[in-house]
User: Fold GTP 3',8-cyclase from Pseudorhodoferax aquiterrae.
Amino acid sequence: MVRRVIPLVAQTAPLPVPMHAVGEAPGPLHDQLQRPLRDLRISVTDRCNFRCSYCMPKEVFNKDYPYLPHSALLSFEEIARLARLFVAQGVRKIRLTGGEPLLRKNIEVLVAQLAALRTPDGAPLDLTLTTNGSLLARKAASLKAAGLNRVTVSLDGLDDTVFRRMNDVDFPVADVLHGIDAAQRAGLGPIKVNMVVKRGTNEQEIVPMARHFRGTGVVLRFIEYMDVGATNGWRMDEVLPSAEVVQRLSAELPLVALDPSAPGETAERWGYADGSGEIGVISSVTQAFCHDCNRARLSTEGQVYLCLFASRGHDLRGLLRGGASDADITQAIAGIWQQRSDRYSQLRGAGMLAPREKRIEMSYIGG
Ligand code: SAM
Ligand code: SF4
Ligand code: SF4
Assistant:
C-alpha cells in the first residue's frame, strides 16, 4: 500500500476560539449534549520511540516526517497554567500522553507542577500518565516522587515475536514487564495495561495476557482497534469486537459483569468469577460511548480538540503567547466546551457520517 506523508497539523486553519461563554465562568461547564468537562488529556510530545503500525506506521513516521520544532511545543509553565484554568472549570482528572510522554525531557518537573493543582474544593487531581513502558523501569520512582498517582502501560502481547513486530522497533516484552514491576514497586497503582487487539495480528495473546496479569492487581483492558488518524490503513475486518474478547476469555476464565466505576468511564468492567481481579473492554468501534464523553484533549502545541476523531482544534497557544489574561483564557475554554457537539463514534455507528476533513493523528493529540 502506498502511504503519503501528511502534514502534522490539519492543513486547515485552527477553529476560532469563542470568547463569549454562555452563562457564568469559571464553574462546571456543560456542552451542547449536557456532557460535563471532567477529563483533560495532555499530549507532551508528538515523538515516540515505537512505531506501532496502528498508530505511527514506519512508512509515514520516518526521518522525513515533519515533527514539531521545540519552540512550537507548550512549555511546562504554559501547560500548567492552562491545566489550572481547566481545573477551575470542572476538570478532575489529568492524563499525560503523547507520542511517548516519558521522552519529554524532565517530565517529572511538569508532573510536580500538575500535582500541586487543587480543585475549587481543595481536592488534589487524579493525575495519571499513559506510556509504552519502555522507559518506565528507569523513571517510575522519580515520577511517583514528583506526585504522579498512577500509570497506564500499553502492551499488545506477551509473545516476544508478536510484540516486537507490533512495536516495529524490535523492542522486547521483558523490558516493558520490568517497567510494570517498577511502577508497582513505586506505588503507581492500580496499574492498568492497555492491549489493542487486532484480528489476525495478536488475537492469540488475549488469553495468555489475562492469565499473566490475573491475581497481580494489574487491570488488563482490551481496546478495539480504532480508525483514528489517517495513516494506519484501518480496516473493519481487523477489528475484533469486545464481545468476542469477553466470549473467548470466559470460555477459559469465567467472568462476571461488574458495575461501571464512574460516569464517562470508557471501559466495561468484568471480574474473574474466582475473585482474582478484573479486566476491562473498551469498545470504541462497536459500542459508542459518546453520550457521556467528558474528555478534552490538549495537543502538544496547545490546540484543544473536543474529540479523538476531530480534524481541527482550537488554538490556545495563540492566546497564551499573545498575552491573554487568565480571565480571557477562562472565557475561551468555557466557550469552546459549551459549543461542543462532537459524537463521532455514535454517528459512525448510525451510518450518519458525512465526508470529512483529514483527521488528526493519535500520536499528536494522545490517546
Ligand atoms: N505512547 C503511549 C502509549 O502507547 O501508551 C501513549 C500514547 S498512545 C497514542 C495512547 C494509547 O492509544 C495506547 O494505549 C495505544 O495503544 C492506543 N492507540 C493508538 N492507536 C490506536 C488505535 N488505532 N486503536 C486503538 N488504540 C490505539
Ligand atoms: Fe508510540 Fe504509543 Fe503510538 Fe505505539 S501507541 S506508536 S507507543 S505513541
Ligand atoms: Fe468522545 Fe469523540 Fe470518542 Fe465519542 S468519538 S467517545 S465524542 S472522543
